[in-house]
Amino acid sequence: MERLQKVIARAGIASRRKAEQLILDGRVAVNGKVIDSLGTKVSATDRVAVDGVPLDKEKLVYYLFYKPVGVISSVKDDRGRRTVVDFFKQVPERIFPVGRLDYDTSGALLLTNDGALANRLMHPSYKFNKTYIAEVRPLPTAEQLSQLANGIHLEDGMTAKARVKLLSSNQEKRTASVQLTIHEGRNRQVRRMFSALHLHVCRLKRERYGFLDLKGLHPGEARELTAFEVKTLARETDTQK
Hints:
The protein is of the alpha+beta class. The protein has helices at residues 4-10, 16-24, 115-122, 142-150, 189-196, 227-239; strands at residues 2-3, 28-30, 33-35, 41-42, 48-50, 53-54, 62-67, 96-97, 106-112, 130-137, 153-154, 157-158, 163-170, 175-182, 200-209, 212-213, 222-224. The radius of gyration is 21 Å and the shape is elongated. The two termini are 16 Å apart. One of its GO terms (cellular component) is cytosol. Residues 2-59 form the RNA-binding S4 domain.
């Protein structure tokens, strides 16, 4: 279920704020009934009309994207930088990224126009796992890896427990490759967790988003999810809460 004004805005009729005014003016109907107050939520099966004209419902689409470094995880950027949707100009639907990856982080990012699923995937109560590979310097100690696993105290609170694995180390360069799986989505969380332990992240990649991985994709490439993958995402977010 999504708020009525959001559905109208996503259909390209008006901005979210103007859509609210359309509702208050009594110009919107749901299943033939005029709605003139805010707060109404609608499902994909509800019939929405503005000034008697039915909204064109977009087909729901889902893409797994291998985001390169140097790309903004946004629909647009006021500084003119390249965004993830610039890689989907051939897609007619108005898609948006589910969550975000930092400008200097690469890896798995889901894009869709399914707002209900996106909200569930981003909600912390569903504990949807994301797995990262970080190249860090200097070499982390066993104690530091244990701290990462048990939670790090950041300025916005203690992080949840994580899964941590040391993949490789280079004694000469004093660098290590560390796999970190978390379910939270705080701003720059992975980098801040390492930084709190005085470990510098040289490179960071999200290699898995839940059960979805980047197999067969190169930076800047995407693939559409299969029907089975979409159903699995929906099922996992329905049962994990």
